[in-house]
Design brief:
By secondary structure, this protein is α/β, with parallel strands linked by helices. It contains 6 helices and 11 strands. The structure holds zinc ion.
Length: 237
């Protein structure tokens, strides 16, 4: 159910759902969906009051998501910034170690550790990009193996590379290339990107036959595709 209220010169609209839970949760799905989830039986004006009390925070958030849509994510590569891997956020921890030659990257207990001989944005960024590239290739290879028996066809090569405007591509010779950022997506979304590209080995277009083939492997592909459309913008360094 949708509710609206005025806050300053703005109208805030939010979607209210009731669930079996103890507290009222208020959140935003980027870029602009505000929602509240309340315990079953909570009176509407109590929820409304709670959302109103968060109005300032909501407006700020909406503005920051709006910025993200039009501008690129502005990173500084400093401690505490969050980075996505398989749809989860990991907070960056930079460790300076002058005794090592090359920066090392690893994920451990919810954190993204980058150990580097020197701490500067370029070094941290390129170490992370390299890590994402390796992980993307690793995951993509693993998942292509999983889907191969279903499609009964193997690509003639798999790579991870820089692709500015696409998540993946399929060459006329059926080599599949994946954007190195792919592994930032949640696994189901990553699988969609993979299956989509594998189906291009059969159809080099987006015809109905192509989509039927995607649907035969992933009947729920529409939601995964939607995720990519909405949040793909956040999949970057
Ligand atoms: Zn396509």
């Amino acid at each position: 159910m949708n509710y609206s209220f005025e806050y300053g010169t703005r109208t805030i609209t939010f979607d209210l759902a009731y669930k079996k839970r103890k507290t009222i949760e208020i959140g935003i799905i980027p870029p602009d969906k505000v929602y509240a989830i309340a315990p079953i039986g909570t009176q509407e004006d109590i929820v409304l009051g709670k959302v109103k009390s968060k109005a300032n925070w909501i407006i700020k958030k909406l503005f920051s998501f709006k910025d993200m849509e039009y501008l690129h994510i502005n990173r500084e590569f400093v401690n505490g910034e969050s980075f996505m891997y398989l749809g989860r956020n990991y907070s960056l921890q930079i460790i300076k170690d002058a005794s090592i030659k090359r920066a090392e990257v690893k994920i451990y207990r919810g954190k993204f550790y980058v150990t580097a001989p020197k701490v500067n944005e370029d070094i941290i960024k390129s170490a992370m990009e390299k890590w994402y590239r390796e992980k993307t290739l690793e995951k993509v290879e693993e998942r292509i193996k999983y889907y191969e028996p279903m499609l009964n066809k193997s690509p003639n090569g798999i790579g991870a590379k820089e692709q500015k405007k696409r998540w993946a591509s399929c060459t006329p010779a059926n080599k599949l290339y994946f954007n190195w950022r792919c592994v930032m997506a949640p696994s189901p979304v990553l699988d969609y990107i993979i299956v989509h590209e594998m189906c291009h080995m059969f159809y080099k277009n987006h015809s109905q036959q192509f989509w039927d083939m995607v649907a035969a492997v992933l009947p729920d592909y529409a939601g995964r595709k939607e995720w990519l459309k909405n949040y793909g913008v956040r999949m970057d360094l």
